[in-house]
Amino acid sequence: MVNKATGDAMSQAVRNAYRNGSEDETMEPLVRVDTNGQPLGRIQKEDSVIFYNIRGEREIELTRSLTEKGFNSFSPVVDLSPAFATMIEYQKGLDVQVAFPPEGEVHDTLSDVLARHGFKQAKITEAEKAVHVTYFLNGKKEQPLPGEERIIVPTRKDVHLFDEAPEMSIEQISQAVVDKIHDPSCRFIFANFPNVDVVGHIENEKAIISAVEAVDRNAGKVIDEARRQGLTVIVTADHGTVEKWLYPDGAIDTGHTDSPVPFILINGTPDLQLRTDGALTDIAPTVLQLLRLPVPSLMTGRSLISNPGPKQIRAAQRLLVLILDGWGEGSGEQGDLIAKADTPTMDALKKSFPWTVLKASGEAVGLPIGTVGNSEAGHLHIGAGRQIYADRVRINRAIEDGTFFENEAFLNVMRTAKQNGKALHLMGIVSFFSSHGSLNHLFALMDLAKRENVPEVYIHAMLGRRGEQPESGALYIEKIERKAAEIQKGKVVSVIGRYWSMDREENWDRIKKTYDMLVFGKGKTVSFQP
After folding, report:
1. Using 50, 70 and 90 to split pLDDT, how confident is the model at 529?
2. For the stretch 239-251, what's the b/e string if a residue is b when 16 or more beta carbons lie within 10 angstroms of its beta carbon?
3. Rounded CA gap, 417 and 457, in Å?
4. Topology, domain 2-101+393-528
5. pLDDT value at position 1?
């Protein structure tokens, strides 16, 4: 038990957990208790809940467990019947109110054009990145398009974290790609190797080097086979990760980066040149030019091919786009783990074929100025061929212009809590940098709860050190506690690593740990003396 006599009980509890060997991402649950040792601020029947995370693919499972009637992926489960709101739409059909509904599907994407012209297309990756090569690449469309095949290799369940198996399932992905290369009816193949991004979020340099080398090795295999079969090949990435693995002070940065990404075109056209001012939005128009297909007017991106003229470019009868997820173009200096790894395939491609770099972060992919890229925005923009503003930008603007504080979903949930004499629970990532959410959004909700005079506000924090300084979780909890003291509203009552709460692979044992913390108060107890 942690005993603390001041108002920063939970932030100190997190610091104590660090001293005992814990780290943010996988921190075991910490639960605040009252003076009698009883868990404080548990989610009870007909309470109100706001899950303020964005992105959404890692938020579905926990939301289902708290809201779905007859949920049975683990037990025990209480019929909570909460008044539940989510910041954005995580999945159609969830029993929740959505504060910022989707602005609609993105039409005339690369996949739409291919389907419209009768192209058989294959999307290939492992389950860890399935949503990116399907839903996001297709412009937020959940169902496959006509002629589209989705080949999703299962993600391994026999490892705790992927530094234990940095190769992941890349061999199976490669084989699936080769199989499609040998299928002449499949004219477009889009494949994602997730290793660099996934393993890059773990503080294990040796494993990251192995992941980079596995991607390079398997890229060589599929590219060689594609060339033998006469396919045009594009090699690129959705964002950077491990090419900037160190902060300037030498601390490890496990997050995404603002680096550009490589773009290599293997087409066979002599003296072909590529623009040097491109972005991910230019990939789709380039693919369509190579396939001799019309570029929709909605695609404001431009072909990356600067010369020769379209008639002199060798037409692609079949085309492979290979995404090396998280492979940024670095400086080659200390902390560039891609440069440190042995990458003969990529080295040879850059020497033999036209290549350039593409913007993959910030405004170029619809994100706030100066922010790092991510897989969601990356794949969305690769497929859309135009700039699509992210949910974070919409929410930030709503806070700035005041419409956030008039949002019906938030007001409905808060007023329900007040009218019924029930608690309001705010849960989500605690970070300024995570692609899954921002402390600014939590602070705005706390201000709104204060304005609406909601009697009890409990905060459940999820920690994750992706793109953060070491032990940043305690600093964020401390900021929340200061905010709560300042406005006299809200208590941080539980803390857990995002590993246990933000899953997308049906690792229900992880979600159960978070559920048990939220509902039953299971975890290491933290006492508080006012």
Report:
1. low
2. bbbbbbbeeeeee
3. 10
4. 3.40.1450
5. 42
